[in-house]
From TrEMBL:
Gene Ontology terms describing biological process: ribosome biogenesis
UniProt region (Disordered), positions on chain: 1-38, 113-156
UniProt KW keywords: Nucleus, Repeat, WD repeat
Family listed: Belongs to the WD repeat RBAP46/RBAP48/MSI1 family.
Keyword Mitochondrion attributed: no
Species classification: Eukaryota, Viridiplantae, Chlorophyta, core chlorophytes, Trebouxiophyceae
Basic and acidic residues bias locations: 115-132
Record protein name field: Glutamate-rich WD repeat-containing protein 1
Pfam families xref list: CAF1C_H4-bd (PF12265), WD40 (PF00400)
Organism: Chlorella vulgaris (Green alga)
Domain Histone-binding protein RBBP4-like N-terminal as annotated: residue spans: 43-109
Principal subcellular localization: nucleus
Chain intervals with Basic residues compositional bias: 1-13
Amino acid sequence: MVRKKGSAKKGKGPARPPKAPAQQDASQKPAVWLPGDTLEEGETLQFDPTAYDCMSSMSLDWPSLSFDLLRDHLGAPRSAFPHTLFMVAGTQASSAKQNYLAVMKISSLGQTKAAADRQKEQQQEQKQRGGDGSDSDEDMLAGSDLDSDADEDEAETAQLHLRKVAHTGGINRVRACPQQPHLVASWADTAQVQLWDLGEQLAELRDEAVPVAGASGKVHKVNARHVHTHSSEGYALDWSPVLAGRLASGDCRSRIHVWEPAPGGRWAVGPAFRGHQGSVEDLQWSPSEETVFASASVDKTIRIWDTREQSKSMLSVEAHASDVNVIAWNRATTYMLASGGDDGALRVWDLRAFAAGSAVANFEYHRGPVTAVEWCPFESSMLATTSADNQLAVWDLALERDPEEEAALAPESNALAPDNLPPQLLFVHGGQTDLKEMHWHPQINGLIVSTAADGFNLFKPYNV
């Protein structure tokens, strides 16, 4: 981000560097602005619409602290615009009985004009070099219905299709079963974890070409498939990617329970795994071993468990200087685990050397607690974080600093990155208030969805 004097358009994402007058020397270059820096009187931030291939925002009538993206029938990996996607979210209403699970379809998510223009230029360059242009480029151009006079910030074409399912209590976390996306688990502030079959709602949305008038106002009554009451409320919740239907839930009294699918469409909830000395904040199943999962806690530790041994964890390390809020297991490189803490740090762990207690990467960039971390499903070295500093950061661990390249680009970008800016920081998305959670879409390459107190953002950075 770059700061400058004068007015600017309001928006999301990195700022566009102002053009410098010809007589401007190096000492007058604009400063790179980072969230948390103060702005002088008359200074504003300028949004760069060219930084996004797509960007859309939407909201429910209540804030949502947690959501999940659902695997669908539309294929993977896909990149042709416009996109359609499905998701489920939970609300935090002003009274317990006003809460609901929001089952959503977002359709007609189109490109920004800048992205469409960029693709046209690339296709023209290909033709000039004697190429025919790839099918994927042609498909994406054909799928973009943007008018050439459309506003350059965003193609306002995305449509929200919504079904509401009644839910008593504020919803702390929502997770969909990867093998059966219609099966959804919710963690409520009533200390209950509930499992829901949302197949009927999803089927309606799949067949809905345009949002049905009045459908979003009706709240449907659905009986939960299974309910388990913990000794206190909690946030930690994860489905096994290896064994369909296996679930783990953790609460604020340090207890972890594993749910096993049982005959008759029920679940058997086992006795508590004990070992943490504080609230269990997050859980992650191993992407390759069906009996192994990891947990993160307010007691500053990350623990690795085996379901065959409930009396103690297999491994444990003090991971952060304060609460460990979130963890993410790399699905492609299965010995890599990432964590984010109240200390604002993002750390990456090699589980082959986990017992040594030293992270293989440590980034102290965020200026507030890290609230979410997730690896990109298509690039094993890429991950993203959200923080209470209202930043969503995309990281690429494969990147290294190249001072010569930075100096060469400086006249074009008109600003040099500060020395304390990590070279692995690939993209910063801003503009949301009280960011809580983000997910990469599992089937749409590079698409990110985030939730905050003021609603959802759906976007694809141009460089991801």
